[in-house]
Design brief:
133 residues; alpha+beta
Length: 133
Amino acid sequence: MSQVVSIRVPKHFRDACAEFRNEANIENPNSEDFSDCHDFVVFYDESTQEIRCEGNFPDPVFSALVKVRDRFSGKLFYEDEEWNDREYEVVDEAGSLEKVWLILAIVFFPVTLVYFLLRAVIWIPFKVWKATR
């Protein structure tokens, strides 16, 4: 699956590019300002002050983009939408005891609802009818 991640650095663009290349271990760009890294391509667009990665890039490239964003106060974009760190928090997998409680809740919640429904609809009117008879 091909991805597009970019970072816009309004200040110190050349320094940001150099640091990104060092962090991600990418060779210097050729004359057209892009680096071909087999599975992905990195573009350096000086007119928009943007470093753009397209393709199947490894995790160190993404973490290098995040470091450059933090250091140079840039904006990170994933598929042309601004990346918000809070939206993509990593969630730990539930433990075995938590999974057991979840399964029990899924099974017994409907059973409990049916019990209360039958009690309210059948048993209580029956007791009222028997008491007034």
